[in-house]
Amino acid sequence: MLLDTASLYFRAYFGVPDSVRAPDGTPVNAVRGLLDFIARLVQDHHPDDLVACMDFDWRPQWRVELIPTYKAHRVAEETETGPDEEEVPDTLSPQVPVIESVLDAIGIARVGATGYEADDVIGTLAGRAAGPVDIVTGDRDLYQLVDDRRGVRVLYPVKGVGTLQVVDEALLREKYGVDGAGYADLALLRGDPSDGLPGVPGVGEKTAAKLLAAFGDLAGILAAVDDPAAKLTPAQRKRLAEAKPYLAVAPKVVRVASDVPLAPFDAALPAEPRDPQMLEALAGRWGLGGSLQRLLDALAH
């Protein structure tokens, strides 16, 4: 089981009231919400291995160089030396180090890589896995990894953490008309304002799905633009031709990396905390109470 950790703690932050606070009054709604989420996942799905995949860089420079608008509207502060700072709610950012410390003390593998997003770590680990993989994310970009043959599916939280939609190829074909591999092409054609991806003007989700159904993949669509006999409307041909510079670089930006260099780690779910003393100190300091206990109970069973 691969967790898109930031996507899940964002959801926890907005799903749990900020009246959930530590003894000193600091909000810990994202921390407790995430712990409850993981407890529920372990209890319901019994994964053998679980990895909390981290964004060591939420807006990698190599993606920005290809498409400068990539996530640009979410930049709070540009930094010349390191990754730009992401605009996050001011009571969420202080909770992230707490989440990291708690996961480390429990012994849940936390994995990231310099210059890469959590999505890239997930793509790399899903590709390496020998058995079935459940990817837990609130980000539809990862639908591109769904692969029935290899048993890779996405668990997408629809409401809170209790209701997860299981996304397999049948659901993708029904909803979008593409399989997992086709989802990245669909996403880059249609664009995604939340990620600052312009897409091809005038090509929405339905048109993108029709083009992919007709021509197979992005390469097939681009070949059709250059083929006068291909069945494209004049407007589509013109728009796609004008978008060629974008379409040349978009695949590298939209497709998750599959070859991220990762340090060795132990993905096995711990039956008991790795550092009980540290965990006890964190639980007292941040008032983690029932949320932490529920996760420890789930891990012990």
How does this structure look, described?
By secondary structure, this protein is an alpha/beta fold. The protein is built from 13 helices and eight strands. It has a six-stranded mixed β-sheet, sandwiched between helices. The chain has a two-stranded antiparallel sheet with strand order 3-4. The protein is elongated and about 70 Å long.
Task: Supply database-style keywords.
six-stranded mixed β-sheet; 46% helix; 301 residues; 8 strands; single chain; alpha/beta
List the strand order in the largest sheet. 5-2-1-6-7-8
Helix content: 40-55%
The class by helix and strand makeup works out as: alpha/beta
- Give me the Rg, rounded: 21 Å
- List the total number of helices: 13
The biggest beta sheet reads:
6 strands, mixed
**What is the CA-CA span between the terminal residues?**
17 Å
SSE sequence, one letter per element: EHHEHEEHEHEEEHHHHHHHH
User: Please, what is the average pLDDT?
Assistant: 90
How large a portion of the residues is in β-strands, by DSSP E? 5-15%
Poorly predicted regions are none
Q: Shape, please?
A: elongated
Structure summary, number of beta strands: 8
